[in-house]
Amino acid sequence: MNxxxxxxxxxxxxxxxxxxxxxxxxxxxxxxxxxYRWAIKLQSKLGGDLDIIALAALLHDIGWSEDxxxxxxxxxxxxxxxxxxxxxxxxxxxVGEIIMIHEDKDTDADLSLECKIVMxxxxxxxxxxxxxxxxxMATACEDEASYKKAYYRIKNYYxxxxxxxxxxxxxxxxxxxxxxxxxxxxxxxxxxxxxx
Length: 196
What we know:
Blueprint: H1 3-16, H2 28-46, H3 50-59, H4 70-84, H5 89-101, H6 113-124, H7 129-140, H8 147-161, H9 171-195
């Protein structure tokens, strides 16, 4: 599998797919690469088919539509692309299924290990140091930005995301998620000492 070629395809698709960026600094491609790296780390701990995990992680966000779920659009594009590369049809089917449902983090469905890993990798990119940085940068883009506004945004982000640990499908992801939330909690406590 030529992953360099696939990564170039992902870079093109995430920039061309028309998905409006939430903020000028938010890159769908960079998010995808972080998810890919997390998926590889989780696979090294948990097992599973590396090619299916890597392909699903890389291709999970290539599609976008105002009218349809992006997982559905992305799955169609991924299946077509992988077929054009001559990838084994069973791998294509499994990758397409993962991409189709990757956003349904609250599902109770019986998921494959590969699907759990990709979903967890995507979830882990929502929390941690990158999330704190995102909130700080988003606050800076607003009118009357201040440290206190960033503090309140980060604190709200923590409050909203802490219970989402229940969405983790694997113990390895739960452990990492808990570590990240503890880091944010410590950061908020330190920030409170410095700001108030």
